[in-house]
Amino acid sequence: MYLVAYVCLLVTLFASLAGAAIGTAQLWQGKHSELRWLEWAQGLGSLCMLVASGVLMRALVVSDFSVDYVASYTDRALSLFYRCTAFWGGHEGSMLFWALMVSVCGTAFLFTRTYRSLSVETRSWFLVFFLTIMAFFGLLLSTWSNPFLQSSPAPADGQGLNPLLQNPGMIFHPPLLFLGYGGFVIPGCLALAQAMSPKKDAMHWLDAARPFTLTGWIFLTAGIALGGWWAYMELGWGGYWAWDPVENASLLPWLIGTAALHTGIVETRRGKLHRVNIFLMSLTTVSAFFATYLVRGDVVNSVHAFGGNGTGPYLLFFVLAFLAVILFISFAAKDDNSRELGGIETREGFVIMTVWLLAAISLVILLATLWPVISKLWTERPVGLDQHFYNSVCLPLFTVMLALLLACPWLKWQGGVRDWRKLLIVGAAFCGALIVFWRMGVQQALPLMSASLCAALLVSMALLLAEKSTRAWTPSLMACLVHASVALVALGISFSGPYKQEVELELARGGVAQVGPYSVTLSNLYEGRDKTFDFIEAELQLSVDGKTVGVVSPQRRLYDKFPRYAFSEATTHPSLGSEFYATLLGVSGGKAVLRMSANPLVNWLWIGSAIMCLAPLLALRRKRRPENKTFPDGEDADR
Q1: Residue 511 located in a structural domain
Q2: What's the whole-model pTM score?
Q3: Number of domains present in the structure of the chain
């Protein structure tokens, strides 16, 4: 059975290589008669990926420890649910899952009417690029990342799944990231394909790939948000974003993809930035592979990176080669509608400034993440950059972006303000929020400015939505909800970090501590045993203004399969205001050693993220723009 699965990986490799080679040769000769063979190669590769994935899933379900991957990430005590999710819990399985998601997205695109409406040349080029990516996956999985290696005799039990991964957040976090990466492969390859095609298609690639672009962005956003939630709930340090290299790796494709969505608006509405759009959308696909290189290539140290698998040099070569290809194609692409960009005072200028800010943040994060590698050029003791650096540089840039989002809707594409009255209302909302937050005690400059901008941005989106006609209401609702969700996320970040109140202390039974608005009483401290771990649990009673509001019970766990490490199981008392958060660090002299905090408005971060993921669904069925569309310069274009 496992031999069959391995053969499937080889078939994917050789079928994809053959398809890409045939397609390239045909296009070079100006022929297109073999397109069906390229489609069959893609279908065969997808089928083989599905079979291989099914075999690995079966091995995990039945606990076949003769497979090294199963023995490394599961054991007999692990529940069926977590045995299944161990599919993406390790390097080899997660690579197979990513390849499966890419192949599924590619096959789904082949069955769309949009794909069939494209010219034969564009379809051929699309499959050449797509099959090249699938061939690379086949190469990795059949060599350095083979999930079907076996040992004989098989061990009696496995090593178990890392307890940190036994959490609902990690059940959904990696699959959503890989679905996001897979979704962005379609517009990336299609942009390159249409740039290489000599014939003009009836549908622009921005419109043809729109469903995959939006769903890819949705999945990537959801994956990052759930990763932050998992870190907040499971790691026990009381935060949701530590600027860890693995976190940064997933953020880079999101930032670039978001920039590509905004430049796409400029091309759709104004007929500009054609080459930039091709480059940015393709770069989103490349950045996903670069993120994998950071995580799996032994480049930087991280608490949850996969190292020591030998894939680093090959991933780097693929990234550099792909980058060279998209640079060449992007700059060589024809742009028949090339026009001069608007000035900085126009709506177009504000959108482009937003894109530049996203690019600047991406570059800062990239250089800071690679700083331990870069600093090796002049020192033998390279050091990484801490959270203070990232927060000092990136958060002000994000705050400037909020200001751009606030003003942009009220500018004309050709310059000038289109509605002074509403812009003044938004400005008044900003000033009012500034005064209110100041009187509430928010006196740190950056949180004060960003929180006030968030409040004004919510007012701005409400005013913008109110003026839209019924015909334009659905797409406008999507855009307004996404930008409003950005305001909610920024509001949560503005308060939950700088104004978190945290204490670390020892508390005896009956002892009382004050944490923000909460009065905390240790009512009980006891030991216990679960199926797979021993634990110590502290029972904390919470009260506010003398009224009991709840009981929370943080734990300290020692797992049978991981006896060298103690794991904290944090607990929270949810609130839309100040949320209580507690971690049991240990026991000293009969006293509980606790880290407790009051995190203001932190749940608005998750609420905003949920809205951000759901809102783009409203625009999935938006009608495409006609190919003969003109790009007006007058007042109508501003609306």
Answers
A1: yes
A2: 0.94
A3: 1
